[in-house]
Amino acid sequence: MAESRLRDLSTEFAVDVLHLCDSINGHYSLKNQIERSATSIGANIHEANYGHSRADFISKFQIALKECYETEYWLELFAKAEIVDEDIIKVLYNKCGKIRRLLIASINTAKKNKEQA
């Protein structure tokens, strides 16, 4: 159930970031970076569901978590450089934070279950 929620949230978040990037003129290298990190979150969550083992599942979620942190960095940079309105950044930052917290909880649960198995 949590993985389905994570998949849905990460897909929605990736679409939001893609729409944001469509609205920005210039800054092609920065847009490329945030598009890559934001879409990678969902890709790794999706891939985790087809992992060969619990360790593979955990690894994919950890990669998704790292991509969340990277995406948050790009959002902060966009705000500080005044490339995007701060209110828009706050909404996306909050969505990314929600995904991050769910990933952390899922990783902790998977690790705990792995130890008990």
Describe the structure.
The structure is a single chain. With about 120 residues, the chain is mostly helical. The chain has one domain (about 1-115): 23S rRNA-intervening sequence (de novo design (two linked rop proteins), Up-down Bundle). It has helices spanning about 1-20, 30-50, 55-80, 85-115. The chain is elongated. The two termini are about 20 Å apart. The mean pLDDT is about 95.
Short description:
This protein is an all-alpha fold.
Keywords:
117 residues, mainly alpha, de novo design (two linked rop proteins)
CATH topology: de novo design (two linked rop proteins)
Overall pLDDT metric: 94
Class in CATH? Mainly Alpha
Alpha-beta classification: mainly alpha
What's the N-to-C terminus distance? 21 Å
The CATH architecture comes to Up-down Bundle
**Topology order in helix (H) and strand (E) letters:** HHHH
Assembly context of the chains = single chain
Q: What name goes with the CATH superfamily?
A: 23S rRNA-intervening sequence
- Main beta-sheet annotation: none
Our estimate of the beta-strand percent is under 5%
Q: For the CA atoms, what is the radius of gyration?
A: 15 Å
Query: Quick one: overall form?
Result: elongated
What's the total number of strands? 0
Point out poorly predicted stretches. Answer: none
Helix run count: 4
Whole-number tally of structural domains: 1
How helical, in percent, are the residues?
Answer: over 70%
